């Protein structure tokens, strides 16, 4: 089928309000959030229903047209940006944003893939329930994108990754067939769990159109402490102490270095230094429960009091009001945006066995500084999950194109060191275009063979998100 004929059939079938082909209408859909990747596409499809997704994919498969599923475009690996093939179509789920149902007896929620995460969290809250997936991009990312990347976020230490919060998935395969896996059952041991293949598949197997999610009791009482630590080793000891003393109430254990805080203080508006002195690193801890806030604050104050006494932290600020709690969180949440304002950073989203983090950070920094004098690490992340965002900026005074020129070699060193500690090169952001080469080089050959076989079953003509992941 010629391009013109394909576009004509697509437009006739779905309608001109669903298919955009004018270059000016397509242009906003071909770049990623960080502006690292800009590709090409002949059309953007914005369906309103699962049936329209099915019609679109069937036509694309017939014509051999590559399809790039797109959620909120907050992914950090270039997964939702098309490659340079002018035949691509971008399929955006943004119009499929309905909450289909909330069941407060079964504690489930069924939502369309284009539902913004923050909106569905608020809807769950209005029904007196909690959907615990939470991340700094939650008012832009979509639940379909969260499933496709198996997103993590700040509450994994308590509630697990996205795949642990999903009961069912509806998806459209490249053939146009609809995978009706939108079950809300807690228990269903009928063979292979196919929805789990779609979760984390980064748009390479099909298009997720809806999800059935687990809801939990609201844990509205919250207490937060920001503690200044001397080293990652202290952070690790503090984590063990809090885990033992706060148990399941421990909801977030975040880490960032003094360099990250400096960046936030420089670029984010309305933030203030939390302590009179600058410290090498900080941990931000949240505990939450249905119990009273006073009780939580007393618990946190007691544990942090012990930690200060034993020298496990140097200073600490416990939130005394919601406003304070939010301003402590902002110090952590503004890091990504402040990095963006600071220029191009090399980003690595790695995970390690948690007890190896201090040794990894020490050997990694020594190795990088020896080979790239003046390189500036900005390290933060979900320490309680063993997940570090190990980001690097060019040495002061270096060519602004440093990240583009030297980035590949530097990243290889980081990922090599991660492998030496039995870590993972992608903790929660996925592979996309950014890490594809390293993924293919480092992944176990048997695992790769199995993944390729699965891809072949779901997408025999290879139209789903080419150039990503595999
Ligand atoms: C400031 C900031 C903070 C962040 N913090 C975190 C964090 O703490 N934890 C974390 O895990 N991530 C984080 N991210 C990354 C990002 O928000 C997540 O990866 C998120 O899950 C992506 O969702 P999205 O809707 O934006 O997906 P997109 O970026 O649009 O797409 C991501 C991938 O999923 C595919 N895809 C999207 N929708 C579908 C669908 N319906 N069906 C099939 N495939 C689909 C795309 O093709 C692409 O490969 C952060 C990003 C930013 C900008």
Beta fraction of the residues?
15-25%
Which spans of ≥5 residues are poorly predicted at pLDDT below 50?
Answer: none
Could you tell me which ligands this complex binds, including any ions or cofactors? Answer: flavin-adenine dinucleotide
> Structural class, from helix and strand content?
alpha+beta
Total number of distinct structural domains: 4
Task: Please state how the strands of the largest beta sheet are arranged side by side.
Answer: 15-12-14-13-17-18-16
Notable traits:
4 domains, Uridine Diphospho-n-acetylenolpyruvylglucosamine Reductase, domain 2, binds flavin-adenine dinucleotide, about 475 residues, seven-stranded antiparallel β-sheet, Alpha-Beta Plaits, alpha+beta, five-stranded antiparallel β-sheet, Uridine Diphospho-n-acetylenolpyruvylglucosamine Reductase, domain 3, about 35% helix
